[in-house]
Structure prediction request, 454 residues.
Amino acid sequence: MKKVISTAMALLLLLAVPAAAAEATPAQTAQAVSETTTLFQLPMELSAVLKPEDDMRKAQILYSKIEAGLEALTGLDGKAYIDLSGCALSGVDGGADAALLDRVYSLVYFNHPEFCYATGGYVTVCESGVGEPVLGVRPEYNAFAKQPGAVETFRAAADEIYSRVKDISDPVECMLAVYDALAVRNVYNWQVGTGRRGSAPPEAWNAYSALVTGDTVCKGYAMAYRLLLNRCGIPCIAVGSPKMNHIWNIVLLDGQCYHVDVNCSNFDLPSLPGRSIHSRFLLSDETIREKYGFHGWTAFGPMGWNVAAPACTSKQYEAGWAFNGTELPLYRWDGNYFYLQKAEKWILFQGGLSGAGTAVAALPLYSRGGKLASGIVWAGGCLYYIDESTNLVCCTLGDGQRRVLGHIPFTAQPSPDGAYPAELDGIGLRYAPGKIRAVSRTRRNELAVFPLSE
Prediction:
């Protein structure tokens, strides 16, 4: 017999739409899982979800087998299952064993954000008849996971970002580097942004989209950020508000908690490739509530979105840092940070993350109506930007020399579906080894490609 076990992971679907969408079901009453700091401890111990009457030894065996099965993609073919026949589990629906299995499975999924190729649900496989011993469980997988090479591509994408940040010793620098890495490789999903959620690809709500396709929504950003920071040893959880239809993160740093919303890096739809807005990076509860209107959030725990979120009281990072007030990514090179901030003109600075940097040059970035209408790319000790004449310019950071690489033919146009007017069009920049692509903001089409000698 096979039967679907419905887990609390289904609550993820309640938070799979952006803040602009219609409101979802109100959040459940928050319940603490022992102490809120437990949420940051990966792997969370079994004791956090077990009841006094549960068999700890049986739970440990279940955990180990489920963990290994999900790592090995058992059941991806729709036939195999994780063998639990030696655990003497009863298949009675609603019985004690079924409840234990559900809690353990949910904890495995919570402890491994890299298992996002699985849905968090499963099917039990029994010998025959109601109440017969359980043979095993067949995990349910997201549709993208069944595409040839998809999981390998996902893992490689996570490895690539991790390889770039793993040796950064300062956790703030590491968090910023991951934040910018996700921001510059993604745009907000067009269908969701224009109110056509039903036509968006399912993976838009998964870390796969933020790491592989570059076409994501708030949940994709948040889950990818949690996955990568946890891998770097930085405690990070996902939080969400059904009242806002929005998901973001809270990080733990030197004993203090802070809000981080990578989604805001491109919240001005349509997204502008090559931009990374840092306005919701390392914020307190008070600031994110009073300045940005966030409310009604709870944390994602092993049994769903019903855990009290930890308090964020510190304002340490809300002023006096290089990332405050800039809507473009930062770059660490030759022992210094380089970044652009807007005064009367865009100014290139160099210096540390905290304190005032040294102005290097005033750069005429392409703007319209007083608003930035272009992205940038940092690569190989150079800043690539678009000037007021829509030329791609390379600025060498070592000596400040600038040279024009070529002209980008561009006339602002509305999006073909009429969702966005020409006034919102702009030129985004995307980097790939050996080349830079210039793309339209409202049409997402390629405007020009420039080869680089690296």
DSSP finds eight helices and 25 strands in the chain.
